[in-house]
Amino acid sequence: MIRKHIIAHGRVQGVGLRFTVTGFAKKYNVTGWVRNLYDGTVEMEVQGLDHRVELFLQELSSDRPGGNRFIRIDKLDITNIPSVNVADEKGFRARY
User: Does 18 participate in catalysis according to the annotation?
Assistant: First the structure.
């Protein structure tokens, strides 16, 4: 079980990235959250089995994440962080 903290830079707000990321999380059965930050970036934490988190990151890193032509991710800052108790985090959600 691994957990990653991710900051997405680029055209990432107002283009459906939070919705797209939530779909990736359901597809790969990972938990965590995603939210917009005031500086125009999107922050997220993703936790799950190593290979599922890696598949999530591969899809997020694609040219057109989720087939959305409006999302443009220029850079992802990815950091390993400690996992949280699975009982405390049941799914993946967008934070506001």
Answer: yes
Q: Which of 35, 36, 72, 93 is catalytic?
A: 36
Phi, psi of 76 (to 5 degrees): -120, 125
pLDDT at residue 16 above 90? yes
Is 29 known to be catalytic? no
φ and ψ at residue 72, rounded to 5 degrees: -135, 105
pTM score of the predicted model: 0.92
Domains of the chain: 2-85 (3.30.70.100)
Is residue 89 very low, low, confident or very high in pLDDT (cuts 50, 70, 90)? confident
* % of the chain exceeding 90 in pLDDT: 82
Report CA-CA distances (Å) from 73 to 31, 40, 52, 64, 87.
21, 12, 20, 9, 32
Indicate which residue of 18, 52, 68, 72 is catalytic: 18
d(CA 46, CA 53): 7
